């Protein structure tokens, strides 16, 4: 077993504290714009898909580490909030594409701008470790 130094413990604590601080910051931001933190994560899961601006329900479930039926309920609530819309994939009718509405894009842009600034601050703090 590798010996862990006091400095290692301090680095782990600093990282864990920064991570919790970031999560708390993003959760507060989502609530401030009328979304739950999970709804904000849905928006990010949609826009974060490589090379496209939509996601399948399965991809959202995977990104959020939740079951498919839980993702469906969460997407339903996002749709009721006016931030996402659903449509069938034109090439595979079994697949439902979830994409952001203009309102969803605006909300995600504002949240992500603030979150990236906070992440930079925390990254700068952690550079000493």
What does this protein look like?
It is a single chain. The model has no long low-confidence stretch (mean pLDDT 94). It is elongated and about 55 Å long. It is 65% helix and 10% strand. Helix 1 (6-32) runs antiparallel to helix 5 (102-126). Strands 1-3-2 form a 3-stranded antiparallel beta sheet. The chain has 5 helices and 3 strands. The chain has 129 residues and is mostly helical. It has one domain: Winged helix-like DNA-binding domain superfamily/Winged helix DNA-binding domain (Arc Repressor Mutant, subunit A), CATH 1.10.10.
Summarize the structure.
By secondary structure, the protein is mainly α.
Keywords:
129 residues, mainly alpha, three-stranded antiparallel beta sheet, Transcriptional regulator, MarR family, WH_DNA-bd_sf, WH-like_DNA-bd_sf, 65% helix, Arc Repressor Mutant, subunit A, MarR/SlyA-like, DNA-binding transcription factor activity
